[in-house]
Write a structure and sequence with these properties.
By secondary structure, the chain is an alpha/beta fold. It is built from five helices and five strands, in the order αβαβαβαββα. Strands 1-3-2-4-5 form a five-stranded mixed sheet, with helices on both faces. The protein is globular, with a radius of gyration of 17 Å. The termini are far apart.
Length: about 130
């Protein structure tokens, strides 16, 4: 009986973990509700516009992952926007190219870059969100 309860509890925890929003510093798919909630809470936010076929995007991802793991960026929320399938959102954000990074501090856009692969420059953009 106890093992059934333990198994059920573990299954519920696993389900709850899969439904919870991404932790700060982790990349999550863009959703308007999550983005608005992060903005209203005043969190540092990065929108990463990428495409699976884009070599620059592939270069940016490990740089962003490394920076997001640093303690000073512990609250950073990273939202991934798919360049190929989210065209209406790209129009709203005024994005014309994949490999675009847009930094927000709460509801205010602090800066953006396109095609940047220099870790120091990406770091500088992220620092504007703090």
């Amino acid at each position: 009986m106890k093992s059934r309860r333990a198994a059920l509890a573990l299954a519920c925890l696993a389900l709850a973990a899969s439904l919870s929003p991404a932790l700060a510093g982790e990349t999550m798919p863009f959703s308007a509700a999550s983005f608005e909630a992060a903005q209203k809470s005043g969190k540092p936010i990065l929108i990463e516009v990428s495409a699976p076929w884009c070599p620059i995007c592939k270069t940016q991802k490990p740089i962003l992952a490394k920076l997001a793991g640093e303690p000073r960026f512990k609250d950073l929320q990273i939202f991934d926007v798919d360049f190929d399938s989210q065209k209406e959102l790209l129009r709203r954000l005024n994005v014309r190219m994949q490999s675009t990074l847009i930094a927000y501090k709460g509801e205010t856009e602090m800066g953006r870059s396109v095609g940047e692969t220099q870790p120091e420059w990406i770091e500088g953009l992220l620092e504007k969100t703090l």
